[in-house]
Amino acid sequence: MRLYLSSFRLGNEPEKFSGLVTGNKRAAVILNAHDYFHEKERHHALHEEFHDLEKIGLTPEEIDLRKYYGDKESLEAQLMEYDTLWIPGGDSFLLRRAMYDSGFDVIIKNMLNEDKIVYAGYSAGVVVLAPSLRGLEIADDDTKVSSTYNEQCIYEGLNVLPYCIAPHYKSQHGKSESMDKVVEYFIAENIHYKTLMDGQAIVINGDKEEIIL
């Protein structure tokens, strides 16, 4: 299993991410955490992500999970063509719902267990890997799922990690203060968690895990 879990954007040592990626270095960018954005804003955000990935030698293309709702088999076949994922931040609850409706949540766990792809991303893209998303509604708007997708919110995480992640911790970021409250919730509920300041990332390669400062 290969994971690169950043607090914000590529982090301070993006070469740690690109070093995990083998093959033709094709990157599937999943931007569904931005689905509440206006189309022009979403397009601009997508190309910012593309630019960052191209700078570290990756070839990015978008995979919009909304196009695969109810068609898990086609999504799985498409994902098999890529060497890494890149899942940026935004609203974690929108992202989680899109992962469920497309079948991505099942597909990715199998692909990671078989080491067929690198999972990389930041903020919303990493918090969904936890056992649960409970507490994140302090920082993210869980009502966006009903207003954007007309669906119910899912609070169950992908359970790829045995702990929750609090990104933007003690950072110069708009969500930093709310993340302090998320951490307080984790402590009060005795939830295993790790914090990431912007610039930091968790790198997992097989049995080895390290935090990049």
Your description of this structure?
It is a single chain. The protein is an alpha/beta fold. The protein has helices at residues 15-18, 39-55, 72-79, 92-102, 104-113, 124-127, 144-149, 176-188, and strands spanning 2-6, 26-29, 59-62, 84-86, 118-122, 164-166, 193-195, 201-205, 208-212. It has one domain: Rossmann fold, CATH 3.40.50. The strands form three sheets. It has a four-stranded mixed β-sheet with strand order 5-1-8-9. A hairpin with a 2-residue loop joins strand 8 and strand 9 (208-212). The longest helix is centred in the N-terminal third of the chain and has 17 residues, at 39-55. The chain is globular.
Structural topology:
Elements: E1 2-6, H1 15-18, E2 26-29, H2 39-55, E3 59-62, H3 72-79, E4 84-86, H4 92-102, H5 104-113, E5 118-122, H6 124-127, H7 144-149, E6 164-166, H8 176-188, E7 193-195, E8 201-205, E9 208-212
Parallel strand pairs: 1-5, 2-3, 2-4, 6-7
Antiparallel strand pairs: 1-8, 8-9
